[in-house]
Amino acid sequence: MEKARMKNPITAHVLDITKGRPAAGITVVLEVHSDASGWKELARAETDNDGRINDWRPQSSNIAPGIYRLTFHTAHYFRSLGATGFYPYIPVVFELQDTAAHYHVPLLLSPYGYSTYRGS
Fold this sequence. Notes:
Layout lengths: L1 H6 L2 E7 L4 E2 L4 E8 L3 E9 L5 E2 L12 E8 L1 H6 L8 E8 L6 E8 L2 E4 L4
Parallel strand pairs: 1-8
Antiparallel strand pairs: 1-2, 1-5, 3-4, 3-6, 6-7, 8-9
């Protein structure tokens, strides 16, 4: 398990709490912030059938301490369910301090609300 954490320092998981199941097919964009140039995209992936993104990050040598943003693009997901969501995308900004640590960002999602936290 420890090797997987080192290989994938940033992971994400989306759960649709109205359906009680993982949210598959949500595009998530990983960006890093620089004072000089603003936000820079590092990677982009789609949640799998279990609502997870585990292997989408850039090489771990590219991960440095700093401010990162995961943007969950939810509009397409809700449209695919025939639902209307209030949040077309959800940006989650966090600070990565220890490059040897694992940063897991779960998103609990419904059409009119969401919650996030640092997972394990």
